[in-house]
Amino acid sequence: MSPSCQLFGADASPFDKYVKKKKLEPLETYVPAVLLTQDQFRDLEKSLEFEKPRYDESRSLLRSGPASSLRINIRAVAQYASSSGQGKAASDAVDECLRALEDLDSLLLQASRNNPSASVDVMRSKISVALGALDNLLQTVPSAVLDKGKAIADAYRTPADDYEVDNSAELVCLDSKLASGGGGGAGACWATAGNGEEHHGDQHKAAYVCASKQRRARVGRPATRERREAAAGRAAVAT
């Protein structure tokens, strides 16, 4: 099995066996992670604009942070869509997204090995397809749930005091989900890279924590889990 197949689950059934066996969490727990994955793909796209892109580092972005649990998250969203009569559209979006990411992963691997046929323009087109497919999938989410997910994702990106108090519990949950490398489960989600190296949940966590710190440093608002939990405590006392 190829590394990208192991990463994105190309040989899996329309809805991941993990999702079938494990009772789904509420839909709103998956949406923010999908939105943050879109951010991650946009960051990856920007990294390709450098004169000499670091393809190995760009490829590692597909194995860290929100992207490491994307397959579980989007198939959970698709299963909710199926229960509301939108299963075909959701399943098509999931398949399109995963195919594009498999192609992108393969292109990045070829480029890291100095294969001249691996075009940056084609890489960008694959990212665009994946982003569009995720947009289509999110269209199946009820508007109230999507708005809530956007608010939580916004608070995670650039936290403000009012968001932290209002969404503190959801933010702590999202922190846990992203750190675990999976849909609320243990941090055992991993993929085998082209060189046979295993990327474990702890590495996912470290990579995304680093990326999160860099993102928050740019907006000048460092927000740690402890700060969020403190906000949750203040909100509890106030009530």
TrEMBL record:
<protein>
    <recommendedName>
        <fullName>DUF7880 domain-containing protein</fullName>
    </recommendedName>
</protein>
<dbReference type="InterPro" id="IPR057202">
    <property type="entry name" value="DUF7880"/>
</dbReference>
<dbReference type="Pfam" id="PF25306">
    <property type="entry name" value="DUF7880"/>
</dbReference>
<feature type="region of interest" description="Disordered">
    <location>
        <begin position="217"/>
        <end position="239"/>
    </location>
</feature>
<dbReference type="InterPro" id="IPR023222">
    <property type="entry name" value="PsbQ-like_dom_sf"/>
</dbReference>
<keyword id="KW-0793">Thylakoid</keyword>
<feature type="domain" description="DUF7880">
    <location>
        <begin position="26"/>
        <end position="152"/>
    </location>
</feature>
